[in-house]
Amino acid sequence: MTFNVLSAAYLTRFAICVLPVLAFLGALVLLDSFKLAPLRRLLVSLAAGAAMALVAYLANTLLLGGKGVPNSTWIETPIVEELLKALVVWWLLRTGRVGFMVEGAIYGFAVGAGFAMVENIVYLHYLGPASMIVWLVRGFGTSLMHGGGTAIAGVMGASQVHRGKFARELGLAGGWAVASLVHVLYNSPFLPPAFAAGLVLIGIPALMVVIFIRSEEAVEKWLGEGFDADMQLLADISSGEFSHTPSGIYLRSLRDSFAPPLVADMLCLLQVSTELAIRAKAELMKREAGFGSGEDEEVKSRLVELRYLEKSIGPTGCLALTPLLAARERRLWELRQLGYSSS
């Protein structure tokens, strides 16, 4: 049959290739009561996933000696594709853009969605006149498999992001292994495509619900405990009692290694950082309550002061101050909620 890009048959298949995975991503965003995933970062994740699909297509063409995706193998190719998508998730984790599992799920799914849409469009070019069943399987099965697999990697990486050096990389590596296994099984010739798609349609939404429930509980706990701890620290600093606390004693011990003016700047940085951490938590509470947020000139001013103090203290001083601050990844994530850039 004649199959051109303006035909109703082509447009129907195109919609099936693209819309289901975008609708599922939109549902994930709506389920996030704290609105942790801004639109700009979602679009970047989608674009990065799409770019990785193009890289995978070129790799399949050059390395496998075929015509790209349609001639790919069912074992090697899933492993490579999941690795490419996981690299985007690693960058998000590495730069402090992911603080909780729900973010790992949303951004991971967005990366996988971008990848799936480009892959489906490539398949549409090669296999356009194929049966509508093929496109239903790809649109509702393969696309969710790509998004869900990368979401798993994101969740496992995010679950370890505050547990020490290289923990997030180990978590992400485990997530990549799980995603690769799911992808290989999905592509396996031993499972009928429709059956595999059905498993994905049931399994991925159920898994996302569990992840969202657990993650939102973690955010609630962090907000409560973290807010109280930050307020107590700020009260100690403001009241002049800080020097008698364990944190104050540690800061005074740094006078043996740093000049007194530098230690004074460290105290100022600790105070400013704590104030901004409180503001970040308050911002999340506002979002959960359904209130919007606008630009805050005072926050902007404090962020400028924070950058100045970090530059004044230097990398060594900031490293010495680490025991008094939240874990680097958590602190960076909190500041990013207020528009901070570490670059």
Write the layout of secondary structure elements.
Elements lengths: L7 H24 L7 H25 L12 H19 L6 H27 L4 H27 L8 H21 L5 H47 L6 H8 L6 H29 L8 H25 L6 H9 L7
Helix pairs in contact: 1-4, 1-5, 2-3, 2-4, 3-4, 3-5, 3-6, 4-5, 5-6, 5-7, 7-9, 9-10
What does it look like?
This protein has 343 residues and is mainly alpha-helical. The chain has two domains: 8-215, no CATH class; 240-336, no CATH class. The chain has eleven helices and no strands. The protein has helices at residues 8-31, 39-63, 76-94, 101-127, 132-158, 167-187, 193-239, 246-253, 260-288, 297-321, 328-336. The longest helix is centred in the middle third of the chain and has 47 residues, at 193-239. It starts with 7 loop residues before the first helix and ends in a 7-residue tail after the last helix.
Describe the main β-sheet briefly.
Answer: none
Helix content: over 70%
Number of strands: 0
Low-pLDDT regions: none
Work out the strand percent. Answer: under 5%
CA-atom Rg in angstroms: 24 Å
Along the chain, the helix and strand elements come as HHHHHHHHHHH
Domains, number: 2
**Structural class category:** mainly alpha
Distance between the first and last residues' Cα: 54 Å
Count of DSSP-assigned helices:
11
Overall mean pLDDT score? 87
Q: Which of globular, elongated, flat, extended, rod-shaped describes the shape?
A: elongated
